[in-house]
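Problem statement: downstream parser choked on a complex file, so we are re-checking the raw output for the flavin-adenine dinucleotide run. The parser issue turned out to be on our end (a line-ending mismatch), but while we're here, posting the original submission so the record is complete.
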Amino acid sequence: MKKALVIGGGFAGCAATHQLMAAGGWSVTLVEAGPYLGAGVRTFWFGGHPYTFGPRHFLTQNEAVFRYLDALVPLRRCNEHEFLTYVERDNAFYSFPIHMDDIERMPDRDFIHQELAQVKGVANAKNLEEYWIGSVGRTLYEKYIENYNKKMWLVDDNRLIDTFNWSPKGVAIKEGPRAAWDTAISAYPHAPDGYNAYFDIATAGATVLLDTKIDSYDIPNKSVVLKGEKLHFDLIVSTISPDLLFEQCYGELGFIGRDLHKIVLPTEHVFPDDVYFLYYANDEKFTRLVEYKKFTRHQSPTTLIGMEIPSFNGRHYPLPYMSEIERARKYYELMPEGVYSIGRAGSYRYGLDIDDCIEQAMQMAQQVKEGGRDYPVPMEKWR
Ligand SMILES: Cc1cc2nc3c(=O)[nH]c(=O)nc-3n(C[C@H](O)[C@H](O)[C@H](O)COP(=O)(O)OP(=O)(O)OC[C@H]3O[C@@H](n4cnc5c(N)ncnc54)[C@H](O)[C@@H]3O)c2cc1C
């Protein structure tokens, strides 16, 4: 049996463990610093309601990834969902992504149309502000994007944000159906405890060490010291921030964290029928509210709202700065063949979601099987 070490027991670590166990021939040790698997995707209960740390609904464009997860934790499709943004200066809720019909009901619609007719495009955009203004003009940028991103990234100036997985076409204004991502599969587990069963299924047969941290890493030699013992592995799959594997020798990688406040309200539903999330693009400290029962379908005379406030608490959102991505790349260059760095922190990539964790784990196992040399890390989405 070959020996694999998986570092971190969030979705990516569990998915990687599952892929290796399914491939056969691997003895897998998964090391998780916390007391449970799943991290923020694990369902807990508050006020009789199931909840996760922020919304964690399953969104993918990859049928194979959907089928994989659906076979293990049956999923209910929920493609009807809409997201709304509250724009205080219009005292109105508008769909997000920005929808043409909403522009028609804005008090300054004529001015916005003039701006839209003059947008310059994004070919020369160097930062988030230029990208959005180049796509939709200054007024729509101010209404939907400016304050939201400042609080999301805890910055005073969005021009600091100089990379964002931008499309060369810029941001299109939506027309037709309002459902937020009608080109993707949107789903959520049927089970009252959400994805929880997945973490046990995925790690069955592996050695799972909870509440455990590795004492020290020697990644170039695929070795670690664990509970005082030096261990060598044939394969290491890390899902934690790459700087932690190298004693931050190139400096600490930056992240934004989150505080989550849970509020029970004495009413069956608060949000309109198909609305799952509300975004707030003004001076309030919070970015997003979620009404959990919209996707959990939990039955109760009360409802649970989650409120997210950006903070430095936790390493949830890798910074979308080129300088930080460059720093991450230097860490990846220190990783030899047989070391993978996947998942959100592991890839140091904002916007890397549950489906991407699964896809990366599948790709990793495939490469290992084929003796592929596409090491050390996937920096881009697979498609
Ligand atoms: C608030 C929020 C809401 C989100 N909503 C959605 C959504 O609706 N849909 C969606 O698809 N995606 C969503 N995402 C993204 C998605 O949930 C994540 O991309 C995915 O869960 C990341 O999994 P991961 O395993 O890469 O990382 P994590 O979930 O962060 O897991 C990493 C694990 O490593 C452990 N760890 C850390 N340091 C060490 C160490 N030194 N040693 C051992 N273990 C360690 C941690 O305890 C943790 O369990 C959301 C993310 C956030 C933050």
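For whoever reads this later: The pocket of flavin-adenine dinucleotide is lined by residues 7-13, 31-34, 39-41, 53-59, 213, 239-240, 244, 258, 308, 316, 343-346, 352-355, 357 (CB under 6 Å).
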